[in-house]
Amino acid sequence: MSQKEKIYELDTRNQKDSYVTDYFDKHNIKWIRNKLYSGDVKLLNDTRVIIDLKANLEEIAHNLCNTQEHLRIHKEIDRAREIQCEEFIFLIKEDKIKSIEDLQNWSSKRTKVKGSTLLKAMTTMSKKYGVKFIIVPKKEMGAKIIKLLGGKV
User: Under 8 Å CB-to-CB from 128, ≥6 apart: which residues?
Assistant: First the structure.
């Protein structure tokens, strides 16, 4: 399937993603909104790779280090597995941190979670559930999604 034939699905419940849709539109990439069973972005009729978009490190810290949210994240991953997802990726929009390892020294006034704690939670989730955490600057999010879903940028 060529890049032009691929259609990307974005979840209807994730409306704060104009940085992605603007990129798609600018590059004539076909996309639609659907209520997705799991995650925020995937290819139409293909559940092998599912991407869950995170607005920033504070959001993923809240998701992983808050008991209620942690349970919701587990259910999200389980739903992805139900539909034969082979690779579940948390794509985190962040301009200041360049790699997962840089989290060691990260902190935020908006959360009590320390970078070292978040790094440990991400590492545990990766090992236990086989998920990936990728940190990407906002301006590169659209291109990274295309690449992760097997397209050419």
Answer: none
Q: What is the pLDDT of residue 67?
A: 86
The arithmetic mean of pLDDT across residues 36-45, rounded, is: 97
Q: What is the pTM of this model?
A: 0.93
* 41 close to 149: Cβ distance less than 8 angstroms: yes
d(CA 23, CA 150): 16
CATH number of the domain within which 89 lies: 3.40.50.10130
Question: What is the model's pLDDT at position 3?
Answer: 52
Give per-residue pLDDT as tens, 90-110: 999 999 998 888 999 999 999
> What is the residue range of 109's domain?
3-148
DSSP alpha helix (H) spans, the chain = 18-26, 57-65, 67-82, 115-129, 141-148
Angstrom distance (rounded) from CA 22 to CA 27: 9
34 domain-assigned: yes
Query: What domain count does the chain have?
Result: 1
Residue 44, domain member (yes or no): yes
In a domain, 153, yes or no: no
